[in-house]
């Protein structure tokens, strides 16, 4: 089994050790022993940028040292960091930072640079990993699914079982799905009684005029969300309750406490786009509604 966090760490170290050479996705994939297709998808899902974008950002950021502290010719700096031509270096630098290398060398400007990714910022959860959260605003929308009352303390594995059953055996009964290939795992603790919560495996719908027998609808108002994405080399069906549980512990006990935000509602949902998942790879997003701490809105 591929160790996801060790794979990312090996990528980062390879890039740093070869910062002065040309680096291709093929080079990195060969070094870490992972398909370049999966490596590209995993890195972009985790960080929001492709691994080659990260490579170039690191090269350009590192080159600022020579710009600021040496008298090296621009051509020599370009060649030092694996660019074929001076002009290709200048164009890449301006595209990344908004200034030419000459301005960075001679004028009093500030540039946001890309430092080496800190592997300690990555949380490893049963061979899946999460990085820094991102933020999404979603307008109101509707879900239809099957509602289950489960015990919160042991609910994750049961929720996963219900989710698989719904997606493979019942989701096709819903007529007007917006995208039937996208799974929503909606958790509601607004009526938290005796340690029980409600879990609704569901899909998004255009309207709620046609609700299949035995199912229910959920209206979700507009919200700002913090989104934690975890990725790993495993089948979506093999997600374990402990994986999701550890992620939720990280979300509620560590991140929200120190973030300046607080929960804005009594629900969250899991989001899996099955088009981005297969037998060897999975991405799962957890959406938590948030508002600024102390806000009444």
Automatic annotation (TrEMBL):
InterPro entries: AraC_E-bd, Cass2, Homeodomain-like_sf, HTH_AraC, HTH_AraC-typ_CS, MarA-like, Reg_factor_effector_dom_sf
MF annotations from Gene Ontology: DNA-binding transcription factor activity; sequence-specific DNA binding
Protein name per UniProt: AraC family transcriptional regulator
Domain HTH araC/xylS-type: 9-107
Organism: Geosporobacter ferrireducens
Gene3D superfamilies noted in UniProt: Homeodomain-like, Regulatory factor, effector binding domain
Superkingdom of origin: Bacteria
Keywords, in A-Z order: DNA-binding, Transcription, Transcription regulation
The keyword Transcription belongs to this UniProt entry's keyword annotation: yes
PROSITE patterns found in the cross-reference section: HTH_ARAC_FAMILY_1 (PS00041), HTH_ARAC_FAMILY_2 (PS01124)
